[in-house]
Model the fold of this input.
Amino acid sequence: MKLLLRAFLAFVCGFALCALMLFLPAGTMNYPGAWLFLALLFIPMLVLGTVLFVRSPDLLRERLNGREKQKSQQGVMGLTALVIFGSMILSAVDFRLGFTRVPGWLMGVAAVLQLAAYGLYGEVMRENAWVSRTVKVQEGQQLVDTGLYGVVRHPMYMAASALFLAIPLVLGSWIGFAVMLLFPLAMAYRIQEEEKLLLRELAGYADYRRRVRWRMIPFIW
Done:
């Protein structure tokens, strides 16, 4: 019951925070891109959270624990939060003042990308029972090298980068998109630091890193 209440409060607070960061700067509730973004983010989140609660409550509990212990990673997560919130607020201000406009067809493509990225996110959690929001190696953790992990070493960060890059485009703002470009750069730094830990503490990771060349983006990096 405590887990269900915690998940419910996180969901409601997350929705309320996102809504405030969009509709207040936009100065109106008549912001179609914002409503589309909220639907694309929170409906799949509700479905995924329900599935995790029923099938893997331990993984849901782990996903709700996002407090980093390493100072370097605390800085990275603080930066990513600033980037995400800043991009959303600036996108809403951009909508209000009309500085830039993303073409409708591209907003549609971005909406599909956001939904696909969330599907990818769910697949990562299905494949890897040890996936965590924090950089650590859990007790009894085993190396996962199949499925998406056979393509890139960090598919969760690939999915997250695709999802968040799509958000300002769904919101219709090039200004917000420019700010959000900092997100995958922050993930790249996080990966560098995380792999140092994995090499030290996760059995077989050195060999896995040699076999799977790409970190986050296939054929690029």
